[in-house]
C-alpha cells in the first residue's frame, strides 16, 4: 500500500494498535485494518527481586507505555507528516498470570507479584488436589490462595484482582475484564461456558480457609470475553495515560486484553486444533491446541485456552534467554575492551553462528540457565551455572551450543511428557522469539532438542504486540461472523511464507546426551540455590 493510502487510513482511524508488556520490553505496533504495519515503538525494562519477590514497578509500566506510544506516534509524524489523533481499535497484552490485588478504593494492596515467583508451592499443591486440575505456582489463583494460607493482612480487603494486561486495560477504559486466554491463566475456564469453571469456583469457595473470607471468588475475578468482542472504549483519562501530549482522541474500541501466550498463538497462526507454537524469551512456553482432553493431570502442563476459548496444553518454563543475554553482554564488553564496539544484532549473530562448528553434544559441557526458580525441575532458587569436566572440550562453538541447549532444556523435559505420555501431535509447530533472529541456528537446535519439525514464519519476528494489534483488527473491523482461525487464515496469513527445519539425527542424539547430563546435575543446581545466598 502506498504512503498516501496509508496516510488516509491513519486520518480516518482505520487503524489498530497493539501494546504488549513483555518481560524485557514494552512495545507498541500500529497497523492498518488490512494488517499492514504502520509504525512501532519500544521501551526496555526489567523485573527486580525485592524482598524475595520478583516484581515490576507499575509506575515504570506507564512510563514505558507512554515512551513506546510516543516513539510510535513520532514515527507516524515523521513518515506521513500527520499527527496521530484517531485510532479505530486497540488492545493490551502482557505477561500472563501473577497477582495484582486491589481494595474497594482501587488501591494496589501489595506490589505486583509476577509469574516468575516460586513462592506458592503449598497453595499450588493443595489447589491441584482440591480441584483435580493442575494449578501451577505462577497462576493468579495460587498467589491468592497462598496469601490466604499465609494470613496476609491484605486478603480480607480484596475487592478485585487481575493480571498485568487486565490492570492496564482497566485504567485505559474502566472495564474490569480479560480475554479468555489470559483469564484461563488466573483460574480454570470451561470451554462450553466460555467463562470460569462454575464447579471449581464452588470448590474453591468451600475450602476451609477461603470460606471465612468476606468475598466470593467470582465477585473479585475479572469478567471473561472471547476474541472479537468489544471490551469497552478508550476514555479521556485513558487517552491521556497513553498520550500525555494530548493528541489522541478518546473513543477507540478496546479488544479484550490478552496474555502473551494468546498473542503468540495469533502471531504464529496457531489457534486451530492440532496446531502449536513455541515462544521463547526471558521465559519460554509451548502451546498445543488440543483435539481432546489429556488423560491425566500433569504438574508440568497447564491447561489454558486460545483467545477464542479452545483448550490448549501449555508447557511453561521460567528461564530461557536470560543467561545467554548475560554471556553475550560479557562478550560484548570484552570486544569493547579490545576497541571493537559491536552492535547487539551482530554480536548475537557471530556467537550463534559458532554453533555450526560445535560437537553435537556440546563437547561434554553442561549449563543451567536458571536465573529464577524452575518448577519443572523442582528448583526453588535459580543460580546460573556452567559445568565442565576435565575431559570436556571447551571452545566457543561448544559453549554456545551448551547455552542454547540449556535455554531449551526445561521446555524439552515438559514437552516429552506431552509427546511421549499423552501422544499429543500437531500438524505444525511454529516458533517465535529473539533467539530465532539469527537464521537457522536457534531453529535447528530447537528442532533437534524437541525432536519435531520447527517452522518459523516471516511475520514471527513481529511478536506479541503485532498479534495483539491483529486481535484489535478482528474486534474492531471484521463483523462478518468469521471465526478467529478462519480470519487468520484468510485475512492475515494468506500467502505468508515460512521455513521448516527437520530434526537432524546427529543433533538429536547429541542433545539427548546433553539432557542426560543436565538431568544428572540438577541436584548440583538445586544445592547451589541453597548454599549460595543472593546478596542483591
Automatic annotation (TrEMBL):
The keyword Kinase applies. SUPFAM superfamilies: Actin-like ATPase domain (SSF53067). Residues 245-270 are annotated as: Disordered. Residues 277-475 form the Carbohydrate kinase FGGY C-terminal domain. Keywords: Kinase, Transferase. Residues 16-240 form the Carbohydrate kinase FGGY N-terminal domain. The keyword Electron transport does not apply. GO terms for molecular function: kinase activity. This is FGGY-family carbohydrate kinase. The lineage of its organism: Bacteria, Bacillati, Bacillota, Negativicutes, Selenomonadales.
Amino acid at each position: 500500500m502506498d504512503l498516501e493510502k496509508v496516510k488516509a487510513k491513519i486520518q480516518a482511524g482505520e487503524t489498530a494498535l497493539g501494546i504488549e508488556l513483555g518481560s524485557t520490553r514494552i512495545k507498541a505496533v500500529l497497523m492498518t485494518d488490512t494488517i499492514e504495519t504502520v509504525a512501532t515503538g519500544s521501551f526496555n525494562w526489567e523485573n527486580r527481586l525485592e524482598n524475595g519477590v520478583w516484581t515490576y514497578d507499575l509506575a515504570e509500566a506507564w512510563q514505558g507505555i507512554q515512551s513506546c506510544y510516543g516513539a510510535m506516534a513520532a514515527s507516524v509524524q515523521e513518515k506521513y507528516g500527520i499527527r496521530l489523533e484517531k485510532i479505530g481499535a486497540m488492545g493490551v497484552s502482557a505477561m500472563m498470570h501473577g497477582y495484582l490485588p486491589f481494595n474497594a478504593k482501587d488501591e494496589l494492596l501489595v506490589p505486583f507479584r509476577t509469574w516468575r515467583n516460586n513462592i506458592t508451592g503449598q497453595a499450588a499443591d493443595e489447589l491441584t488436589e482440591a480441584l483435580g486440575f493442575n494449578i501451577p505456582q505462577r497462576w493468579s489463583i495460587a498467589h491468592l490462595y497462598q496469601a490466604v494460607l499465609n494470613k496476609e493482612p491484605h486478603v480480607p480487603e480484596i475487592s478485585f484482582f487481575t493480571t498485568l494486561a487486565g490492570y492496564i486495560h482497566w485504567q485505559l477504559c474502566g472495564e474490569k475484564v480479560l480475554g479468555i486466554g489470559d483469564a484461563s491463566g488466573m483460574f480454570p475456564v470451561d470451554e462450553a461456558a466460555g467463562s470460569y469453571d462454575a464447579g471449581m469456583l464452588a470448590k474453591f469457595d468451600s475450602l476451609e480457609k477461603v470460606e471465612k473470607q468476606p468475598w466470593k471468588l467470582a465477585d473479585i475475578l475479572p469478567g471473561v470475553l472471547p476474541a472479537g468482542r468489544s471490551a469497552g472504549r478508550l476514555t479521556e483519562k485513558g487517552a491521556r495515560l497513553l498520550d500525555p501530549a494530548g493528541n489522541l482522541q478518546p473513543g477507540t474500541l478496546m479488544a479484550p486484553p490478552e496474555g502473551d501466550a494468546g498473542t503468540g498463538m495469533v502471531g504464529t497462526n496457531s489457534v486451530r486444533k492440532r496446531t502449536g507454537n513455541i515462544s521463547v524469551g526471558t521465559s519460554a512456553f509451548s502451546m498445543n491446541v488440543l483435539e481432546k482432553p489429556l488423560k491425566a493431570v500433569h504438574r508440568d502442563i497447564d491447561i489454558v485456552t486460545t483467545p477464542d476459548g479452545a483448550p490448549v496444553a501449555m508447557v511453561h518454563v521460567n528461564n530461557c534467554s536470560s543467561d545467554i543475554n548475560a554471556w553475550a553482554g560479557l562478550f560484548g564488553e570484552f570486544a569493547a575492551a579490545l576497541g571493537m564496539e559491536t552492535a547487539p544484532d551482530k554480536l548475537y549473530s557471530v556467537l550463534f553462528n559458532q554453533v555450526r562448528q560445535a560437537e553435537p553434544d556440546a563437547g561434554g559441557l553442561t549449563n543451567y540457565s536458571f536465573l529464577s526458580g524452575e518448577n519443572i525441575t523442582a528448583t526453588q532458587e535459580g543460580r546460573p551455572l556452567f559445568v565442565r569436566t576435565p575431559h570436556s572440550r571447551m571452545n566457543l562453538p561448544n559453549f554456545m551450543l551448551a547455552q542454547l541447549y540449556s535455554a531449551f532444556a526445561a521446555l524439552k523435559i515438559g514437552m516429552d511428557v506431552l509427546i511421549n505420555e499423552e501422544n499429543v501431535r500437531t500438524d505444525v509447530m511454529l516458533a517465535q522469539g529473539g533467539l530465532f533472529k539469527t537464521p537457522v541456528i536457534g531453529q535447528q537446535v530447537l528442532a533437534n532438542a524437541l525432536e519435531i519439525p520447527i517452522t518459523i514464519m516471516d511475520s514471527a519476528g513481529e511478536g506479541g504486540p503485532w498479534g495483539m494489534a491483529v486481535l484489535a483488527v478482528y474486534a474492531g473491523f471484521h463483523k462478518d461472523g468469521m471465526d478467529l482461525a478462519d480470519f487468520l487464515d484468510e485475512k492475515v496469513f494468506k500467502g505468508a511464507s515460512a521455513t521448516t527445519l527437520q530434526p537432524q539425527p546427529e543433533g538429536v542424539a547429541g542433545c539427548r546426551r546433553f539432557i542426560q547430563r543436565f538431568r544428572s546435575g540438577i541436584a548440583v543446581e538445586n544445592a547451589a540455590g541453597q548454599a549460595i545466598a543472593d546478596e542483591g
